[in-house]
Amino acid sequence: MKKFIGIILFFVFLIYQSAYSQILPTFVQEKKATELSGNRILTGVTLSNDGTKIFFVRYNENFASLLQYTLTKPFDVSSKDTTSEVSFNLYAGSDDLDNNSIQDLTFNNDGTKLFVIDEVGGMNIHTLSVPFDLSGTVTQDADDGIDWRTKLTPLDGNIRSHGIRFSNDGKKMFLFEAFVTGSHETGVVGYNLSTPYLPSSATSIEELDIQSDFAHSGIAIQGIDFDDDGTRLYIQSGASNLANYDFVVYKLSTPYDVSTAKKVGTMKNFDDASRTGTIRPVGLAFSSDGMKFYQSTWNDNTVVEYDLSCPFGIIICETDPVSNVGAQVEFAKNVVHLNKRDVFKRFEWLRRNEKNSNLNSNGINLNIYNPILASSADRLKNKFAKKKNTQKKSDWSYWSQGDISIGRVGDTAKQKPKEVKSNGIMFGGDKKVGENKFIGAAIRFGIDDVDIISSGGTEFDNKSLTLNLYNSSPLNKKSNIDSLVGLSYLKVDQLHRGQIVGERNGKQIFTAFNLKSRSGYGKFNITPKSSFDFGVTQLSAYSDFGPSGSNSIDTYK
Fold this sequence. Notes:
Blueprint: H1 2-15, E1 26-32, E2 41-47, E3 53-59, E4 65-71, E5 80-89, E6 102-107, E7 113-118, E8 123-128, E9 138-140, E10 165-166, E11 172-176, E12 187-193, E13 202-209, E14 220-226, E15 232-238, E16 246-252, E17 261-268, H2 270-274, E18 281-286, E19 292-297, E20 302-307, H3 321-352, E21 361-368, H4 371-374, H5 377-382, E22 396-409, E23 418-434, E24 437-452, E25 458-476, E26 479-496, E27 499-517, E28 529-539, E29 542-544, E30 555-556
Parallel strand pairs: 21-22
Antiparallel strand pairs: 1-20, 2-3, 3-4, 4-5, 6-7, 7-8, 8-9, 10-11, 11-12, 12-13, 14-15, 15-16, 16-17, 18-19, 19-20, 22-23, 23-24, 24-25, 25-26, 26-27, 27-28, 27-29, 29-30
């Protein structure tokens, strides 16, 4: 009995263990973006969709311009071909920008439109004959005469933006107030465009107040970007003091509507979080698949390349919600099924052996649904044959049941298929209290590993601990009713490429009944039976894990 209790306590201890990983970019390399002298420095950075071109903004050098380089290896900044440099003059047309405050650039989706801004309300737009290539014919659009500091009275009516982005469909444009001071309202402004990628067609705005999220006085918001569907917003700040750097991630309940944004995490000292460094980030960009992140640096004139553990995975990772929810529903249902199955197998065993004086038993069960592995299942089962218990006679009988299941589920039009591996062990004790009547209790600890196929590395590590109370009683001389009540504690860890990216806990209560005749009828020995089960599961809100230490961890549903 002491061993039995010890085993249960061990599994209870295991279920509470977790090794939380930080959702941080992994530093790959830092390379000189270009050779600039004097007070000539870089600000914005972006890449072409295929990763073969990288673009930089030159700031504060009395010659407003962009730089374009070819990457011989897509998205690899170390493959920058310095001989491919194209310098594009932004001060040679009818809509010139301020020479000393060029801040950021971006393209439309197909790379045929280029947008560049300065911090004093200027924006110029160019049409490219060759997508993402400034060496071809580039035509500047006519000056629309708009001062973007005051257009549609954003925030406090006078913004100085250091970045520009568009939604995927071009129907929204985003600017922001860069300076965090007591005299200005700091926030992001989304402009609704009646004509895609035509800023002058802006008709209304939406705003997000971010001042309280960037609490250090004197810092500047240096860049913003979105994930591929507009449900995550990334904002980066910079300052002369490294300790004041903030990188904040927001969740948007409505894609690209910044008024629906909610902060989910903050990172401090972004560069230092991945390596020892002293960069002052200004521009930011993601690769088209979201698996790489880039920062341009102030004064150093370098570009830093990072790998991400999941698409756009800084602070939080997100994957297919339908498949993820489906995996958790299947887990909850499977807990009920496995407990019911093992307890009801015990009922069957007791009836077959009710005349024996020793009702102790132990066993292991393998359910391998993979046809390739099925042929070896029987050989493995034989290694775990039942052994007779030699303990002293007792009113209580003890039993155990282990199981290993491997299978594939959930391959539907809306859900990705899932590879499921289930392992469990149940320990129980029961007592005969009358003719054909038994009462008992059992505890089952289970681990389910679920790998969502074609999800880019999404897995679930599920654990369950269940207390079962059961009873078998004769209903009449010819039939028995078996009943079960179970209480479960559930723990769900969501992983992406081996890193824990979120967790939730759950509670579950369920019951099951089985009515079965003790003998068959007719020449075919037909044995009628009926069964019923019902369960309720409650799962907590998700907790998504960002960096530990000074970085915040926020919970959201």
